[in-house]
Amino acid sequence: MLRAIYRLAWKDVMGDFRHRSTFSSMLFFSLAVLLVFQAAFEPDHQEAQRLVPGLLWSTVLFTTIMGLGRVFQSEEENGAFEGLLLAPLPRGALFFGKWLGNLVLSLLVMGMLVPLTLILFNVNIWSHVPMLMFLLFLGTMGLTALGVLLAAMTQTARSRETLLALLLLPLVAPLLIAGVQAMAEVIANGNLNGPWLNLLLIFDAIYLALAPWGFGWLVEE
Amino acid sequence: MTQLRAVDIAHRFGRRVVLRSVTLNCVAGECAVLYGANGSGKSTLLSLLATRLRIQQGHCHIDDLDIKIHGEAARKRTLFIGHHSHLYGHLSPLENLIFFRDIYQLDVGREELIEAIAKVGLAPFIHQPVRWFSAGMKKRLSLARILAGRPAVLLLDEPYSALDHEGVRWLNGVIDTFQKQGGLVVLASHDPERVAALNHTPWRLDGGVLQPVGETQ
Q1: Number of domains making up chain B
Q2: pTM score, whole prediction
């Protein structure tokens, strides 16, 4: 089953690199958002440190929504999604395959986002970068888990990207708050452990447990 | 020996009744061909047997497996090739078959997949993206899954569409070999001429009722 999950994710990542579609769009979009924030706030050193968590997570959210809007696009061609449903796999495995593909693309963008933010806002917290990356990794796991479920739910809707954002934003708000607060703690005190990290882990566990089940229920006819 | 038993299957979409008390029994080596006009329910019946649609009434067993309860296990023994090719345009034929092998969790080597592609006449295009293939080439590639997958039960919905004469002859040869090796085929078609070369049991679906062709004539 792990081979099937890997292959499903590989197919999505490979397709994206060949089309240069989602990854490049996400990257350029996130860069544009950061540039706009930088131009709008022009923060000094102290202010920048305070703003970075919020700016990073906002950019992550917008960028992830953009990627999620396309997560089932490749399955529309030649009835491919039906082909997946005919495979002798638990529906949860299909979910994890789609999720993993989206997670890899999102994480590649996040990997570039953190250094870009620190350079653009001239914030010298390079020693905290591994912790910031770890927090973004955790946040993106939960965000994409819920996002892939909602993308499956809205894939047949006409204005699916709007609908996806409308559904996703209120549901991931707790996770985003936990992420922002945990990151602020890291930047201020260099301390990763704390209640916000625990909350982030709890939301990840909830989304990753419920989303595959919801996906299975959703795709049954 | 593989056996398929569908008993008292009924299905409706909203208020429209598509199938009424359909019973179909097939054994290994048999090819049941479903004839019927457009909208007669052939594709619906195949989708039910493939577990793509949930059975609303009646029950169906593949060997001792109730497909309503053991859908995943039933899908492991079944290959359904329908109107859609289920291919990914950005992948090459070989990558598409590797993808198929892995999501069907088949124990088939890369060489066997290459051989299957060669047998459907697509060897010269083995590394080209499927996106640029004609409908006939896509059909051939989707049918290459029969060779790669070696299922126990083969469900084919209008398999001759988009195939040229050579392709039809090739497909009939594949089905014939498959039957001789103990495979079970259920095939929906509206074209008796193309099916004629097969050793088959004809059935007709009309008004949601399935009957052996001999009884309707």
Answers
A1: 1
A2: 0.85
Q: B149 lies in which domain range?
A: 3-216
In the block, tokens 């549901």 appear at A171
CB–CB of A89 and B105 under 8 A?
yes
**Any idea where the domains of chain A sit in the sequence?**
2-219
The answer to whether the Cβ–Cβ distance between B104 and A6 falls below 8 Å is no
CA distance between the termini of chain A = 23
From CA B52, how far away is CA B49, in angstroms rounded?
8
List the single residue in A with minimal CA-CA distance to B91: A15
Residues in A closer than 8 angstroms to B80, CB to CB, are 86
Of B194, B188, B190, whose CA–CA distance to B33 is shortest?
B188
Token pair in block for residue A57: 């997570």
In chain A, whose CA is at the least distance from the CA of B51? A86
Are the CB atoms for B97 and B144 separated by under 8 Å?
yes
Q: Is residue A26 exposed (0-12), middle (13-18) or buried (19+ Cβ within 10 Å)?
A: buried
What single letter denotes the amino acid at residue A148? V
> What tokens were used for A123?
């914030």
Q: pLDDT by residue (tens digit) across A102-159?
A: 999 999 988 888 888 888 888 888 888 898 899 999 999 999 999 999 998 888 777 7
A157: left (phi over 0), alpha (psi -120 to 50) or beta: beta
CA A11 to chain centre: 18
**ipTM for the complex shown:** 0.83
Q: Which two tokens stand for residue A147?
A: 């996002």
Per residue in A7-24, pLDDT (tens digit) is 999 988 888 888 767 888
Judged by CB atoms closer than 8 Å, whether chains meet at A86 and B50 is answered as yes
Domain containing residue B106: CATH number = 3.40.50.300
Phi, psi of A71 (to 5 degrees): -65, -30
Counting one residue from chain A and one from chain B, the pairs whose CB atoms sit within 8 A come to 76
SS3 B24: strand
Query: With the C-alpha atoms ordered A195, A200, A204, A206, is the resulting torsion angle positive or negative?
Result: positive
What 3-state DSSP class applies to B145?
helix
